[in-house]
Amino acid sequence: MLAKEVKTGAVVVHEGNPVMIQDISVQSPSARGAATLYKFRARNVVTRNKVDITMKGTDVLQEADFSRRDVQYLYSDPENIYLMDKEDFQQYELSLEDVEEQMPYITEGLEGMRALIYNDACVGLDVPASVELVITQCDPGVKGNSATSRSKPATLETGLVIQVPEHIKEGERVKVDTRTGHFLSRA
């Protein structure tokens, strides 16, 4: 695939290793005839190291031989998280360190989680773009402050703290963007 066609979340081969693209920035040429540069921030899916890649839009990247399997959260202990494949019921284990960024969004029964399988081993986890979580602790809104759109901190069922509009109350379900950690809407 051409570098200009690569999207966030794609898994490609770079220097013989599979890497997942996490961020893309485009640098337009400043001179005539210069090529547009694509800068990719990626993570090696096996070693978890960050990798920076800079390419021209016409350079070719090879897609990694990778599969994504629908999984269900089983449980976690102090060191690992355990997942089960929804099709063949195979269990996968990932260290909590590897899924540190996704853990605040994972709850029992979360639909849409996908395990990243490379050489029959689970090397990563994809969570949906947005999840619904319950607010467990939130200060009440102050009456009369509705003229301005102020926000307040709210603690969710997973322990994640986000900013929500002042009219949101404790016990409500809210949608949260898993890429940014921001409040999206009531659920």
TrEMBL record:
Domain Elongation factor P C-terminal: 131-186
Keywords assigned: Elongation factor, Protein biosynthesis
InterPro entries per record: Elong-fact-P_C, NA-bd_OB-fold, Rib_uL2_dom2, Transl_elong_fac_P/YeiP, Transl_elong_KOW-like, Transl_elong_P/YeiP_cen, Transl_elong_P/YeiP_CS, Translation_prot_SH3-like_sf
Domain Translation elongation factor P/YeiP central residues, every copy: 68-123
Annotated coiled-coil segments of the chain: none
GO molecular function, one term: translation elongation factor activity
GO BP, one annotated term: peptide biosynthetic process
Any one Pfam family match given in the protein's UniProt record, by short name: EFP_N
GO cellular component: cytosol
Highest taxon, organism lineage: Bacteria
Similarity-based family: Belongs to the elongation factor P family.
Protein name per the record: Elongation factor P-like protein
Protein's organism: Stieleria varia
